[in-house]
Amino acid sequence: MSSDLQSLLEPVVLNNYITLVIITAVVYDYVLTFSREIEYIWCKPWTRVSAMFVVVRYIGLCWVLTSALNGSSFVPGPLEACRAVTLLSYWTFVVFISAANLVMILRVYTLWNRSRVTLWILLFICAAQIITDVAFDSIYGNLNTHLSVTIVRVFNSSFCNSSFVNDPPTRGFYSALAAPRLLLAAALLILAVFQTVKQSVELYKATKQWQPNRYVKQLERALPDP
C-alpha cells in the first residue's frame, strides 16, 4: 500500500475504531443497568419523571449512536441513509439535552424546598436554550438551504460527510448558541452546591456530626412528581 493511500485511509480507520469504542461502552452500560431499569421504572407506577427518564435514556442512546456512526464507514450510504443519520444526530441531541436539563431542574427545585422562584428562573433559562437549539437545527439543519450531506469515497471505503453551505455559522454565532446552555449549567451547579453546603452546615450545628452523604443521595434519588 502506497504512503499516500495509507495517509488517506488512516483517518477513516481511526474514526471507525473510535466509533466502535463509543458504541461498545454505551451499549455495555445500558446492558449492565437494564435490570435495574426494569425494577425501578417499568415495574413501578408510571409518572412524569418515569417518562422523562425514558426520554433521556433512549433518546440519548439514539443520539450517541447516530453521532458515532455519522462519518464512519459503518454507514457507507446510500445518500438517504446518510441524511437520516445526520438529521437524527442533530434533533435527538436537542431532545436529549432538553429532557436532561429538565430532570436536573426538578432535582434542584426539590433541593430548594420546591421554591417556585428557583423553578421559574431555571425554566426560563432552559426555555431560552431550547429555543436557540431548535432555531439552529431548523436553519442550519435544513438540507435544502444550509446543510450538505455527501458520500465520500476513499479507496474501497465510503462514509457520510456533512458540512454547512450558504452562509455557515460563525464563531460568534456558536458562542451565542452556547450561552444559554452554559448559563443553565452554571446556575444548576451553583444552586445545588450552595443548598447542599448550607443544609449540611445547618445539620452539623444541630447534631454536631457531618453527614455528607445525606444530600448527595438526595440529589441522586428519583423524584416524585412535583
TrEMBL record:
Residues 17-62 form the DUF6533 domain. Keywords: Membrane, Transmembrane, Transmembrane helix. It holds the Pfam family DUF6533. The keyword Transmembrane applies. The chain crosses the membrane at residues 12-31, 51-69, 89-110, 117-136, 173-194. This is DUF6533 domain-containing protein.
